[in-house]
Amino acid sequence: MAIDETLAEQGDADAQLKLGTCYANGEGVTQDFEKAIYWLTKSAQQGNADAQFNLGVCYLFGENTAGYFEKAEYWFRKSAQQGNDNAKALLMNVFDITLDIDSDLGVK
Fold it and tell me: The domain containing residue 23 runs over which residues?
């Protein structure tokens, strides 16, 4: 964990994703959604599609953040724009978005 945290602090998007996911799931650390959102946001802002998806999940289902639908949808859209199929599925099924998701999101 120390290596990932050091790399995350240095701005490594993959390390930030891993660290945020560990905090979200309580893997190797005490589950802490505030820290999960902090690290996932850092990674998501660098364009990491998996971090964007996981951040959306935190905003949709996480402790003290559940029901933040606008934030969840925002991050799912960002992830879907990069081709994340899980994000596309959540947009269609959870948010009941019935549109040509690929063309509307700019996915090629």
Answer: 2-105
pTM value > 0.90: no
Phi, psi of 47 (to 5 degrees): 95, 15
CA-based end-to-end distance of the chain? 36
Q: Which of 40, 38, 46, 45 is nearest to 17 (CA)?
A: 40
**The domain spanning residue 86 has which CATH number?**
1.25.40.10
Please write the tens of the pLDDT for every residue from 72-106.
999 999 999 999 999 999 888 877 754 455 555 55
Q: What is d(CA 36, CA 54) in angstroms, rounded to the nearest whole number?
A: 9
